[in-house]
Amino acid sequence: MVLVISNWDTFLTPYVQAVEELKVKLKGLREQYQLSSKHTPIEFVTGRVKPVTSILEKAQRKNIPLDRIGREMQDIAGVRIVCQFVNDIDTIVELIRSRSDFKVVEERDYIKRKKESGYRSYHMVIEYSVHTIDGEKSVLVELQVRTMAMNFWATIEHSLNYKYSGEIPDEIKERLQRAAEAAFQLDEEMSKIKGEVRDAQQIIIKNRENSSN
Ligand SMILES: Nc1nc2c(ncn2[C@@H]2O[C@H](COP(=O)(O)OP(=O)(O)OP(=O)(O)O)[C@@H](O)[C@H]2O)c(=O)[nH]1
Ligand SMILES: Nc1ncnc2c1ncn2[C@@H]1O[C@H](COP(=O)(O)OP(=O)(O)OP(=O)(O)O)[C@@H](O)[C@H]1O
């Protein structure tokens, strides 16, 4: 099968559907936590379908024939779950593992073992089924689970990589390494005072409830 550009919309339809469904499901979990006045391990959720130019660039870089990208490119559909605290990540990972509608096919822990760049996140690749007019279709989705500090660092580093076409100057790389260490320290410190932060959140929720009654 040779994919031509006019086929991309059709090819990507199940991926678009998967990302939309997963965003609804994960945001639904967040709502449920909020309604139960429990601390929510999900601060926010984003998702995207990989742009066609990025799919083509990655296929070429990784030598993936276009007729195999559905099986070999794991991040055509991507969802990111951002949390407040590092241990929220464990809660989310357990939650995802326990679901019957997600089949976890791979996990990569870049928190225990950060990447050379300084990148930290927990990655899960799941197989997810969507129902299309041509029947059920299973697609791979990459879930990135990270704290707000990890997300801040990764977003800035991603922009700089884009700016320098992947060749970030050494001096900036070193600054990024130091910033990654600072983000790690921020996560550590916040974890130590999370009880206090959670109490404050409960007070805010209760006050909101009282003023709406
Ligand atoms: N900002 C940033 N993001 C990263 C970094 N490493 C990985 N990521 C993100 O995580 C995704 C998956 O990375 P990996 O788990 O390394 O997967 P991979 O297929 O081996 O590598 P990629 O070719 O980078 O996708 C990437 O597409 C990025 O979105 C990094 O050093 N910086
Ligand atoms: N799993 C994901 N969930 C949500 N957003 C993502 C995910 N992966 C990447 N993104 C975001 O999507 C945008 C476009 O990403 P793109 O796929 O081109 O980059 P990348 O993942 O860094 O690339 P590559 O894997 O090809 O090196 C970026 O803003 C990136 O941060």
Automatic annotation (TrEMBL):
RelA/SpoT domain boundaries: 47-168
Keywords: ATP-binding, GTP-binding, Kinase, Nucleotide-binding, Transferase
Signal peptide: none
One Gene Ontology term from the biological process aspect of the record: guanosine tetraphosphate biosynthetic process
Gene Ontology molecular function terms on file: ATP binding; GTP binding; GTP diphosphokinase activity; kinase activity
SMART domains: RelA_SpoT
SUPFAM superfamilies recorded: Nucleotidyltransferase
Pathway: Purine metabolism; ppGpp biosynthesis; ppGpp from GTP: step 1/2
EC number, UniProt record: 2.7.6.5
Ranges that cross the membrane: none
Similarity section: Belongs to the RelA/SpoT family.
Quaternary structure note: Homotetramer.
Name recorded for this polypeptide: GTP diphosphokinase
Protein species of origin: Salibacterium qingdaonense
